[in-house]
Design brief:
With about 375 residues, the chain is of the alpha/beta class. It has 2 domains: about 5-225, inorganic pyrophosphatase (n-terminal core); about 235-380, DHHA2 domain (Diaminopimelate Epimerase, Chain A, domain 1), CATH 3.10.310.20. Helix content is about 45%, strand content about 20%. It is built from 15 helices and 12 strands. The protein has helices at about 5-15, 15-25, 40-55, 75-85, 95-105, 155-170, 175-185, 195-210, 215-225, 235-240, 265-270, 275-290, 320-330, 340-345, 365-375; strands at about 25-30, 60-65, 90-95, 105-110, 125-135, 145-150, 240-250, 255-260, 295-300, 305-315, 335, 350-355. The protein has a 6-stranded parallel beta sheet with strand order 3-2-1-4-5-6, sandwiched between helices. Helix 6 (about 155-170) runs parallel beside helix 8. The longest helix has 17 residues, at about 40-55. Bound molecules: manganese (II) ion (MN).
Protein backbone atom coordinates (compact mmCIF):
# COMPACT_ATOMS: atom_id res chain seq x y z
CA UNK A 1 0.00 0.00 0.00
CA UNK A 2 1.35 3.36 -1.02
CA UNK A 3 0.68 6.12 1.45
CA UNK A 4 1.59 9.33 -0.23
CA UNK A 5 -0.51 11.09 -2.80
CA UNK A 6 2.37 11.35 -5.23
CA UNK A 7 3.26 7.71 -4.60
CA UNK A 8 -0.28 6.73 -5.52
CA UNK A 9 -0.06 8.50 -8.88
CA UNK A 10 3.35 6.94 -9.50
CA UNK A 11 1.82 3.56 -8.76
CA UNK A 12 -0.94 4.15 -11.29
CA UNK A 13 1.66 5.02 -13.90
CA UNK A 14 3.82 1.99 -13.13
CA UNK A 15 4.08 -1.04 -15.36
CA UNK A 16 2.86 -3.29 -12.57
CA UNK A 17 -0.48 -1.58 -12.29
CA UNK A 18 -0.80 -1.11 -15.99
CA UNK A 19 -0.24 -4.84 -16.39
CA UNK A 20 -2.67 -5.78 -13.63
CA UNK A 21 -5.34 -3.50 -14.95
CA UNK A 22 -4.94 -5.05 -18.36
CA UNK A 23 -6.03 -8.42 -16.95
CA UNK A 24 -9.45 -7.04 -16.29
CA UNK A 25 -11.78 -6.20 -19.12
CA UNK A 26 -13.44 -3.35 -17.28
CA UNK A 27 -11.61 -0.18 -16.37
CA UNK A 28 -12.84 2.22 -13.72
CA UNK A 29 -12.15 5.92 -14.03
CA UNK A 30 -13.21 9.06 -12.21
CA UNK A 31 -13.70 12.06 -14.50
CA UNK A 32 -13.92 15.75 -13.78
CA UNK A 33 -15.73 17.98 -16.25
CA UNK A 34 -14.36 19.19 -19.60
CA UNK A 35 -13.59 22.69 -18.32
CA UNK A 36 -11.04 20.93 -16.08
CA UNK A 37 -11.02 23.74 -13.56
CA UNK A 38 -9.43 23.45 -10.13
CA UNK A 39 -12.62 21.95 -8.68
CA UNK A 40 -12.78 19.17 -11.26
CA UNK A 41 -9.11 18.30 -10.96
CA UNK A 42 -9.11 18.32 -7.13
CA UNK A 43 -12.33 16.30 -6.96
CA UNK A 44 -11.17 13.61 -9.41
CA UNK A 45 -7.69 13.20 -7.87
CA UNK A 46 -9.05 13.02 -4.33
CA UNK A 47 -11.76 10.55 -5.26
CA UNK A 48 -9.25 8.24 -6.95
CA UNK A 49 -6.78 8.38 -4.05
CA UNK A 50 -9.46 7.72 -1.43
CA UNK A 51 -10.93 4.80 -3.40
CA UNK A 52 -7.48 3.25 -3.45
CA UNK A 53 -7.02 3.88 0.25
CA UNK A 54 -10.29 2.13 0.99
CA UNK A 55 -9.72 -0.78 -1.38
CA UNK A 56 -6.23 -1.03 -2.95
CA UNK A 57 -7.42 -3.79 -5.26
CA UNK A 58 -10.06 -1.69 -6.85
CA UNK A 59 -8.18 1.02 -8.69
CA UNK A 60 -9.90 4.03 -10.17
CA UNK A 61 -7.95 6.16 -12.63
CA UNK A 62 -8.44 9.94 -12.25
CA UNK A 63 -8.98 11.59 -15.64
CA UNK A 64 -8.49 15.29 -16.32
CA UNK A 65 -10.81 15.70 -19.26
CA UNK A 66 -8.71 17.93 -21.52
CA UNK A 67 -5.77 17.29 -23.86
CA UNK A 68 -2.51 17.15 -21.91
CA UNK A 69 -1.20 20.21 -23.76
CA UNK A 70 -3.99 22.38 -22.34
CA UNK A 71 -3.10 21.86 -18.68
CA UNK A 72 -0.57 24.73 -18.90
CA UNK A 73 -3.46 27.17 -19.50
CA UNK A 74 -4.63 26.51 -15.92
CA UNK A 75 -1.86 28.16 -13.95
CA UNK A 76 -3.70 27.88 -10.62
CA UNK A 77 -3.94 24.09 -11.00
CA UNK A 78 -0.36 23.70 -12.21
CA UNK A 79 1.13 25.71 -9.32
CA UNK A 80 -0.76 23.91 -6.55
CA UNK A 81 -0.02 20.48 -8.00
CA UNK A 82 3.60 21.61 -8.26
CA UNK A 83 3.64 22.42 -4.55
CA UNK A 84 2.50 18.84 -3.95
CA UNK A 85 5.31 17.64 -6.27
CA UNK A 86 2.85 16.40 -8.85
CA UNK A 87 3.94 16.99 -12.39
CA UNK A 88 2.06 16.62 -15.66
CA UNK A 89 3.61 13.21 -16.40
CA UNK A 90 1.89 11.74 -13.31
CA UNK A 91 -1.58 12.73 -14.51
CA UNK A 92 -4.10 11.20 -16.92
CA UNK A 93 -5.80 13.16 -19.69
CA UNK A 94 -8.28 12.74 -22.56
CA UNK A 95 -5.59 11.03 -24.65
CA UNK A 96 -5.25 8.35 -21.95
CA UNK A 97 -9.00 7.77 -21.89
CA UNK A 98 -8.95 7.31 -25.67
CA UNK A 99 -6.02 4.89 -25.39
CA UNK A 100 -7.85 2.87 -22.72
CA UNK A 101 -10.90 2.65 -24.94
CA UNK A 102 -8.93 0.50 -27.37
CA UNK A 103 -7.75 -1.81 -24.58
CA UNK A 104 -10.82 -2.45 -22.48
CA UNK A 105 -14.22 -3.83 -23.32
CA UNK A 106 -15.85 -1.27 -21.16
CA UNK A 107 -15.02 1.81 -19.13
CA UNK A 108 -17.09 2.55 -16.02
CA UNK A 109 -16.96 6.11 -14.78
CA UNK A 110 -17.57 8.02 -11.61
CA UNK A 111 -18.49 11.58 -12.61
CA UNK A 112 -17.38 14.39 -10.34
CA UNK A 113 -18.23 18.07 -10.89
CA UNK A 114 -20.79 17.13 -13.59
CA UNK A 115 -23.65 14.66 -13.71
CA UNK A 116 -24.08 13.87 -17.39
CA UNK A 117 -21.44 12.27 -19.62
CA UNK A 118 -19.98 14.99 -21.81
CA UNK A 119 -20.35 15.02 -25.58
CA UNK A 120 -16.67 14.33 -26.19
CA UNK A 121 -16.69 11.33 -23.80
CA UNK A 122 -19.95 9.76 -24.95
CA UNK A 123 -18.18 7.16 -27.10
CA UNK A 124 -15.51 6.47 -24.50
CA UNK A 125 -17.50 5.85 -21.32
CA UNK A 126 -19.73 2.78 -21.22
CA UNK A 127 -21.60 3.44 -18.00
CA UNK A 128 -21.77 5.71 -15.00
CA UNK A 129 -21.32 4.03 -11.63
CA UNK A 130 -21.08 7.04 -9.34
CA UNK A 131 -21.79 10.77 -9.21
CA UNK A 132 -20.73 13.56 -6.86
CA UNK A 133 -21.70 16.96 -8.22
CA UNK A 134 -23.06 20.44 -7.53
CA UNK A 135 -24.62 21.29 -10.92
CA UNK A 136 -28.30 21.09 -11.77
CA UNK A 137 -29.35 17.44 -11.51
CA UNK A 138 -30.11 16.03 -14.96
CA UNK A 139 -31.71 13.00 -13.23
CA UNK A 140 -29.70 10.46 -15.17
CA UNK A 141 -27.97 7.24 -14.06
CA UNK A 142 -30.29 6.82 -11.10
CA UNK A 143 -28.59 3.57 -10.03
CA UNK A 144 -25.19 5.22 -9.61
CA UNK A 145 -23.69 4.71 -6.18
CA UNK A 146 -22.77 7.11 -4.71
CA UNK A 147 -25.23 9.48 -6.33
CA UNK A 148 -24.80 12.82 -4.59
CA UNK A 149 -26.00 15.95 -6.38
CA UNK A 150 -26.35 18.94 -4.07
CA UNK A 151 -26.06 22.69 -4.31
CA UNK A 152 -22.71 23.75 -2.88
CA UNK A 153 -20.23 26.43 -3.80
CA UNK A 154 -17.68 23.79 -4.65
CA UNK A 155 -17.99 20.14 -5.65
CA UNK A 156 -14.81 19.56 -3.65
CA UNK A 157 -16.83 20.06 -0.43
CA UNK A 158 -19.09 17.13 -1.35
CA UNK A 159 -16.09 14.97 -2.24
CA UNK A 160 -14.55 15.85 1.11
CA UNK A 161 -17.77 15.02 2.91
CA UNK A 162 -18.02 11.64 1.18
CA UNK A 163 -14.41 10.66 1.96
CA UNK A 164 -14.02 12.51 5.28
CA UNK A 165 -13.01 9.47 7.32
CA UNK A 166 -10.62 8.14 4.70
CA UNK A 167 -8.95 11.54 4.36
CA UNK A 168 -8.48 11.95 8.12
CA UNK A 169 -7.06 8.43 8.33
CA UNK A 170 -4.62 8.81 5.45
CA UNK A 171 -1.07 10.08 5.62
CA UNK A 172 -1.92 12.50 2.86
CA UNK A 173 -4.60 14.46 4.70
CA UNK A 174 -2.57 17.67 4.43
CA UNK A 175 -2.07 17.36 0.68
CA UNK A 176 -5.69 16.44 0.05
CA UNK A 177 -6.95 19.29 2.23
CA UNK A 178 -4.66 21.70 0.38
CA UNK A 179 -6.06 20.55 -2.94
CA UNK A 180 -9.73 20.47 -1.96
CA UNK A 181 -9.53 23.74 -0.07
CA UNK A 182 -7.97 25.41 -3.12
CA UNK A 183 -11.04 24.48 -5.15
CA UNK A 184 -13.40 25.79 -2.49
CA UNK A 185 -11.44 29.04 -2.12
CA UNK A 186 -11.74 29.74 -5.84
CA UNK A 187 -15.37 28.63 -6.13
CA UNK A 188 -16.58 30.68 -3.15
CA UNK A 189 -14.16 33.64 -3.38
CA UNK A 190 -12.59 32.69 -0.06
CA UNK A 191 -15.88 31.54 1.46
CA UNK A 192 -17.67 34.82 0.78
CA UNK A 193 -20.08 33.94 -2.06
CA UNK A 194 -22.17 30.94 -3.01
CA UNK A 195 -21.20 29.30 0.27
CA UNK A 196 -23.42 26.47 1.49
CA UNK A 197 -23.42 24.38 4.63
CA UNK A 198 -21.17 21.58 3.23
CA UNK A 199 -18.57 24.18 2.18
CA UNK A 200 -18.40 25.56 5.72
CA UNK A 201 -18.25 22.10 7.27
CA UNK A 202 -15.37 21.21 4.97
CA UNK A 203 -13.60 24.49 5.77
CA UNK A 204 -13.67 23.68 9.48
CA UNK A 205 -11.91 20.38 8.80
CA UNK A 206 -9.37 21.92 6.41
CA UNK A 207 -8.43 24.41 9.12
CA UNK A 208 -8.05 21.56 11.56
CA UNK A 209 -5.80 19.64 9.15
CA UNK A 210 -3.81 22.71 8.08
CA UNK A 211 -3.63 24.90 11.20
CA UNK A 212 -0.68 26.92 9.90
CA UNK A 213 -1.97 27.67 6.44
CA UNK A 214 -2.52 31.35 5.67
CA UNK A 215 -5.87 31.06 3.93
CA UNK A 216 -5.93 34.62 2.65
CA UNK A 217 -2.48 34.25 1.12
CA UNK A 218 -3.34 30.94 -0.53
CA UNK A 219 -6.54 32.43 -1.95
CA UNK A 220 -4.76 35.51 -3.32
CA UNK A 221 -2.17 33.32 -5.01
CA UNK A 222 -4.81 31.07 -6.57
CA UNK A 223 -6.90 34.00 -7.75
CA UNK A 224 -3.87 35.69 -9.30
CA UNK A 225 -2.75 32.50 -11.04
CA UNK A 226 -6.22 31.79 -12.36
CA UNK A 227 -6.54 35.28 -13.81
CA UNK A 228 -3.01 35.26 -15.22
CA UNK A 229 -3.27 35.18 -18.99
CA UNK A 230 0.37 36.10 -19.65
CA UNK A 231 1.72 34.38 -22.69
CA UNK A 232 -1.67 33.05 -23.76
CA UNK A 233 -3.14 33.80 -27.17
CA UNK A 234 -6.84 34.67 -27.56
CA UNK A 235 -7.28 31.19 -28.96
CA UNK A 236 -5.76 29.74 -25.76
CA UNK A 237 -7.94 31.99 -23.61
CA UNK A 238 -11.07 30.77 -25.39
CA UNK A 239 -9.99 27.18 -24.59
CA UNK A 240 -9.08 27.77 -20.95
CA UNK A 241 -12.59 27.34 -19.54
CA UNK A 242 -14.77 25.87 -22.27
CA UNK A 243 -17.82 23.61 -22.14
CA UNK A 244 -20.18 22.09 -24.69
CA UNK A 245 -23.86 21.23 -24.42
CA UNK A 246 -26.39 19.53 -26.69
CA UNK A 247 -30.00 20.67 -26.74
CA UNK A 248 -32.35 18.22 -28.40
CA UNK A 249 -36.03 18.25 -29.17
CA UNK A 250 -38.08 15.83 -31.27
CA UNK A 251 -36.76 17.14 -34.56
CA UNK A 252 -34.08 19.68 -33.79
CA UNK A 253 -30.65 19.58 -32.29
CA UNK A 254 -28.35 22.39 -31.24
CA UNK A 255 -24.75 21.93 -30.19
CA UNK A 256 -23.52 24.89 -28.21
CA UNK A 257 -20.07 25.78 -26.92
CA UNK A 258 -19.46 28.37 -24.22
CA UNK A 259 -16.09 29.85 -23.28
CA UNK A 260 -15.87 31.70 -19.96
CA UNK A 261 -13.32 34.50 -19.81
CA UNK A 262 -12.27 36.70 -16.89
CA UNK A 263 -11.73 39.85 -19.01
CA UNK A 264 -14.14 42.09 -20.96
CA UNK A 265 -14.73 41.69 -24.70
CA UNK A 266 -12.93 44.99 -25.33
CA UNK A 267 -9.80 43.51 -23.78
CA UNK A 268 -9.97 40.42 -25.99
CA UNK A 269 -10.47 42.73 -28.94
CA UNK A 270 -7.37 44.72 -28.04
CA UNK A 271 -5.36 41.52 -27.71
CA UNK A 272 -6.33 40.70 -31.28
CA UNK A 273 -5.37 44.13 -32.54
CA UNK A 274 -8.66 44.93 -34.22
CA UNK A 275 -12.36 44.23 -34.08
CA UNK A 276 -12.37 42.37 -37.35
CA UNK A 277 -9.47 40.16 -36.27
CA UNK A 278 -11.31 39.38 -33.02
CA UNK A 279 -14.46 38.50 -34.94
CA UNK A 280 -12.39 36.27 -37.18
CA UNK A 281 -10.88 34.46 -34.17
CA UNK A 282 -14.33 33.91 -32.70
CA UNK A 283 -15.71 32.47 -35.90
CA UNK A 284 -12.67 30.24 -36.23
CA UNK A 285 -13.28 28.95 -32.69
CA UNK A 286 -16.92 28.25 -33.56
CA UNK A 287 -15.88 26.32 -36.66
CA UNK A 288 -13.05 24.47 -34.95
CA UNK A 289 -15.34 23.22 -32.20
CA UNK A 290 -17.94 22.41 -34.85
CA UNK A 291 -20.74 23.84 -32.73
CA UNK A 292 -23.91 25.44 -34.09
CA UNK A 293 -23.71 28.23 -31.59
CA UNK A 294 -20.62 29.59 -29.90
CA UNK A 295 -20.77 32.02 -27.00
CA UNK A 296 -18.22 33.87 -24.94
CA UNK A 297 -19.29 34.80 -21.43
CA UNK A 298 -17.07 37.41 -19.83
CA UNK A 299 -17.04 38.29 -16.13
CA UNK A 300 -14.75 40.75 -14.42
CA UNK A 301 -14.45 43.19 -11.57
CA UNK A 302 -14.69 46.81 -12.74
CA UNK A 303 -13.79 48.90 -9.69
CA UNK A 304 -16.60 48.20 -7.22
CA UNK A 305 -18.83 46.62 -9.87
CA UNK A 306 -18.89 43.05 -11.02
CA UNK A 307 -19.77 42.93 -14.71
CA UNK A 308 -20.75 40.38 -17.31
CA UNK A 309 -21.14 40.31 -21.07
CA UNK A 310 -22.18 37.65 -23.50
CA UNK A 311 -21.22 37.37 -27.14
CA UNK A 312 -23.19 34.95 -29.29
CA UNK A 313 -22.39 33.79 -32.80
CA UNK A 314 -23.93 31.21 -35.04
CA UNK A 315 -24.25 30.30 -38.70
CA UNK A 316 -27.89 29.40 -38.07
CA UNK A 317 -30.51 31.78 -39.28
CA UNK A 318 -33.45 32.32 -36.94
CA UNK A 319 -32.85 30.10 -33.95
CA UNK A 320 -30.15 32.15 -32.17
CA UNK A 321 -32.26 35.30 -32.26
CA UNK A 322 -35.29 33.45 -30.89
CA UNK A 323 -33.26 31.90 -28.09
CA UNK A 324 -31.65 35.20 -27.13
CA UNK A 325 -35.02 36.95 -27.16
CA UNK A 326 -36.39 34.31 -24.81
CA UNK A 327 -33.60 34.82 -22.23
CA UNK A 328 -33.34 38.61 -22.53
CA UNK A 329 -35.56 39.30 -19.53
CA UNK A 330 -34.06 36.73 -17.18
CA UNK A 331 -30.50 37.71 -17.97
CA UNK A 332 -31.33 41.41 -18.32
CA UNK A 333 -29.50 41.63 -21.62
CA UNK A 334 -28.74 45.03 -23.09
CA UNK A 335 -27.24 45.58 -26.52
CA UNK A 336 -23.53 46.24 -26.36
CA UNK A 337 -22.46 48.26 -29.36
CA UNK A 338 -18.79 48.80 -28.71
CA UNK A 339 -17.78 45.78 -30.74
CA UNK A 340 -19.86 46.95 -33.66
CA UNK A 341 -21.22 43.42 -33.71
CA UNK A 342 -24.21 44.50 -35.75
CA UNK A 343 -22.08 45.42 -38.73
CA UNK A 344 -20.76 41.91 -38.77
CA UNK A 345 -24.11 40.28 -38.46
CA UNK A 346 -25.46 39.43 -41.88
CA UNK A 347 -28.02 37.15 -43.36
CA UNK A 348 -25.58 34.25 -43.14
CA UNK A 349 -24.22 34.75 -39.68
CA UNK A 350 -25.68 35.74 -36.33
CA UNK A 351 -23.21 37.75 -34.29
CA UNK A 352 -24.30 39.82 -31.33
CA UNK A 353 -22.88 41.13 -28.08
CA UNK A 354 -24.76 42.05 -24.91
CA UNK A 355 -24.17 43.41 -21.47
CA UNK A 356 -25.62 40.93 -19.00
CA UNK A 357 -27.02 43.05 -16.20
CA UNK A 358 -28.12 39.99 -14.24
CA UNK A 359 -24.58 39.49 -13.00
CA UNK A 360 -25.55 36.69 -10.61
CA UNK A 361 -26.04 34.28 -13.52
CA UNK A 362 -22.87 32.40 -14.43
CA UNK A 363 -22.67 29.69 -17.09
CA UNK A 364 -24.10 27.22 -14.58
CA UNK A 365 -27.34 29.25 -14.48
CA UNK A 366 -27.29 30.48 -18.08
CA UNK A 367 -27.19 27.03 -19.69
CA UNK A 368 -30.50 25.77 -18.22
CA UNK A 369 -32.11 29.08 -19.31
CA UNK A 370 -30.79 28.64 -22.85
CA UNK A 371 -32.06 25.07 -22.87
CA UNK A 372 -35.55 26.17 -21.84
CA UNK A 373 -35.41 28.90 -24.48
CA UNK A 374 -34.42 26.36 -27.12
CA UNK A 375 -37.40 24.16 -26.28
CA UNK A 376 -39.65 27.19 -26.23
CA UNK A 377 -38.27 28.43 -29.58
CA UNK A 378 -38.65 25.04 -31.21
CA UNK A 379 -42.18 24.86 -29.88
CA UNK A 380 -41.63 21.79 -27.69
MN1 LIG B 1 -17.43 22.81 -9.84
Amino acid sequence: MVNSFKGFLQLLKSEKVDGNLAKSSVLRVVCGNEAADFDSVASALTYAFCSYHKDPNNLVIPIINIPKADLRLRKDVVRTLGKLHITEDLLFFTEDLKRYKTRYNSISAVLVDHNEIEIASKDLISNVVGIIDHHKDENLYLDANPRIVKTTGSCSSLVFDFWRKTIFNSNSAKELAMLLMGAALLDTSNFQYKVEEPDLRALKCYEEILPDLDREEYYTQLKTDKANLDGLSVKDILKKDYKEFIFESADEKLVIGIASVGKPLEWLCNQCGSRSEFQQQCIEAQKEHAVNLFAIMTAWQDGHDFKRQILVMSPLKDQPEKIINAVTNDLKLKDFDQLDAKSFKNEHYYFNAFQQLNVAASRKQVVPLLRDAFHYATGK
